[in-house]
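Assemble and predict.
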Amino acid sequence: MSEIRLQKLDDYRWLIPPTGGMRVPGLIFSSEKMMEEAGKDESPRQVANVACLPGILRYSFAMPDMHWGYGFPIGGVAAFDLKDGVISPGGVGYDINCGCRLVATKLRFEEIRERLQDLVVALFRNIPSGVGSTGPLKLSTEEEKDVLRYGARWAVKAGFGTEADLETTEDGGRIGGADPERVSKRALERGREQLGTLGSGNHFLEVEVVEEVFDEEAAAAFGLEVGQVAVLIHSGSRGLGYQVCDDYLALLVKGIPSLGFPLPDRQLACAYLDSQEGRDYFAAMACAANYAWANRQMLMHWTREAFEKVLHKSPVELGMRLVYDVCHNIAKFEEFPLEGGDVKVCVHRKGATRSFPPGHPAVPAVYRRHGQPVLIPGDMGVGSYVLAGTEKAFRETFGSTCHGAGRVLSRAQAVKASRGRSIPKEMKERGVIVMAAGKGTLSEEIPEAYKNLDEVVNVVHEAGLSRKVARLRAVGCIKG
Amino acid sequence: MKPYCLIDHTADLGLEVFGKTGEELFANAASAVCELMLDIENPEPTAVREISVEGTDREDLLVNFLREVLFLFNGEKMVPTSFIIEELDDRHLRGKVRVAAYDPARHRVKREVKAVTYHGTEVVETPTGWRARVIFDV
């Protein structure tokens, strides 16, 4: 039980006043109902722990999908000063650049209704998924290093997609500063075989239909309208990312005594941004982030192929266009208006999404009037939201918003709750065709294991951290 | 009775492991992780691997040891079938692992265990034996 004191500021914000080693207050975005639950686990304590790290700016934030992680809470956002601040592998997570991409089509749901089963089967066959699955590519170490350097650009050059896809990917599908020489042999080994695989656990690929539009103009700019078919892909950097995180955690844990301040949790092990270890971790993390973008780019390419094959339509007829790709486990250097002007900081988003405002140069020109598209996946079979970034998020939360529904049941509780039930059958009754590589995954990922997506999104909308644009419902889902 | 139980942790998976001695505790922890990942019906080990790990204290040692165990499967595609801890103190561990080459036809993968975390790790000696807690990212 957490003994952290929470002070309600308004309907959507709770403050943790600084006590003990906290250098800044904690600020949690949530609702009365969700706080009843969240207050019970260790996540508020974790928000407070992050506030103890040196160089943290303004607040240690948590988004409404906050839940108990390790080190940082999931749903945590923290920005650090480049001179005195730190970078923490635990503040990014094991699945570096876990994220989502939304692919719109020209198809109406009526056109695929009869072929949906075939489509889901084809996607399941075309896209390697499940624990330890391997991709069809046989890369040499040198080729793999190019993937790490160039990310989605590498994938496009290798024939997986088009230049246009890069324009609507966060950071163009590649962040600078990636140095493959900072990535261990173990990580390279794990990454080599897994490029182009979905993974397992909460990763999925979903066929969705736009169900409701909240902001007509923004939806039109994003190319979304009611009744249209789209595909949402949720995946990350696979074993390569896990290994990069693990390698640097092991290294940085050894350095804890020399940091010069008490660390409340070893999982928060970190390095000063202005240190060799800090620079090395960033260079390796950037490699994993780029790998994840190449991975999602390839998964999208095979999705396009599956649609062409099953529906016997040409790429032009299908018009499968990348709406946007966001990452929700990352540390990045970005500029924000702070007291005294624009300042470049290092923002950690662990289970949080960038939410950049209208007019920001990082937002693709075609969307710039409306803000950056923000993709929020729900739990299995629920669908997702498309939101738009806001000025308020930019000024208050270092341009960050929520990332998903957030778990409420542990995996063990979920398995218990699903005993004796046929999850695929239940999903079918809800109008969703589900195929999964691992049987266990479905029981652990049942819908009631997650917070209500509408409620999470409602908080970020009302609190002004992003604006609702459209809601999509799921009709087909493949899980690892 | 199994020498371990699951701890409820919202996002991930926690283990509480027991052993009469430190050596048994570490071996049980490794077996428990393998059981979480894999269904091994007929273990037919084909090789023995030496394992040697260091740590700054017992907790760090346990995390580092489990890291190696995870890498055997995640990195080397080896299925560990049994563990013998030959030497153990607060900072060093040396032992042997019997392994079989991973064969999808014989070994069913139950779930992916991404990593072992430091969060809330605990290794304690009690009057009745040894106990450890550790949380995995799954």
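The mean pLDDT of chain B is 91.
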